Amino acid sequence: MHDYRDGAAIRGWHAHVYFDAATLEQARALCSAAAERFAVTMGRLHQRPVGPHPQWSCQLAFRAEALAAVLPWLLLNRGDLTVLLHPLSGEPLADHRDRALWLGSAQPLDLSMLPERAAGEEI
Hints:
alpha+beta
């Protein structure tokens, strides 16, 4: 028998918008628009791979209750950008490996740097 978890275990979400030199301005516009429209914290536009991400990326962080508004907006407005969306449940490895949603083509992540449990994950 499986022990089912409550969705309340998800405290928030990260959306990582992937881009390259040719799509930098498109990613900047998308992330800025998301931060203006929603209760989303926009991170830096990293012009190098950071953390487990294989490409340049920008992180959008938001609380769990914002998912119902942010996800459909990203679906309709991402253009040809790839977006990795993952929950913040306190289990970074599982959140990136098993619980991730991809808008666009899934990319291989470097999961070796992710702990099974988070010490103090912020939204």
